Amino acid sequence: MRLWLKRACAIRNNRLLLSRGNDTRTPFQERLGHPLFPSVVRLRERAQTVMAASTTTVSAVVEAARVLFEKRIPSAELTPKDIQGILAALGRVTVAQVGLEEKKEEEERKKSPSGLLNMPFLEKKSSARAPITYYHIYECPDFTVGIFCIPKDGDIPIHDHPDMTVCSKVLFGKVRVEAYDEAPDLQEQLQLENALVARKVRDDVVSEETGPFALFTKSNNIHRFSAVESCAIIDVLGPPYDSSEGREIAYYRETMKLKNVVDNNGAHDNVVVLEVVNPPSDYVVEGREYTGERAI
Q1: Contact assessment for residue 51 and residue 73, using Cβ atoms and an 8 Å cutoff
Q2: 196 CB contacts (<8 Å, ≥6 apart)?
Q3: How far apart are CA 9 and CA 172, in angstroms?
Q4: Which of 78, 112, 230, 276 is deepest in the core (most CB within 10 A)?
């Protein structure tokens, strides 16, 4: 755990705050967490006291990840075939096994026409971004496992995973996935400074029925999750972010869409320019205690 927290320090400092229970919100520098987030509370020790079982579906996910990532094969060399064990294990995970069945039911009630929370006059109007919640399941030097819950209309901004592989599955709800591949050939051709030229290679809506999916070092590595409905996504990420090994997260925003960009394969309209930015000032992730099956 301490090793993981040290690696979490790789994320740039920021002004975002978080809350847990009656705690006063404190700067990220004082509470370190998953580097994907500007902030997340430390719940690692408490996660060790959750329900135990001799063999669990969650344990199968961890074991499949361990088999692959402890080999420390360079991420750039991994193929879809290499991650089939992780994807298969993720495919068997349900909301009940990870302690989110009640949360799913609550979100289903909100969508119901008869649900009071669905009435517009009872909805709270706010321009502030609703916080994302994170459930930490497992960590080791080779990989991490956790769950993101994104409220409807919320998002995890465009970010990258340098020299990393990520396997994911939507547990409930619907999320729009936008993914980008770096385009070094076009980068040289367009000669843009202080910006990244990329091809937008994915833009679709994913649900539980879609099944597990993945990103690789050179494929879909930069992405954004936007919740069409309130959703939960379980992630297996390996190896973890670590600035000392060159794996420091970067956030981006689309600044330009280019039309009729010509390369060796013809003209394309999916080329965009990405600018490195700090995460939005109101982007907050709050840690939650994981209460599902224990990973052993």
Answers
A1: no
A2: 182, 187, 252, 273, 274, 275, 276
A3: 31
A4: 230
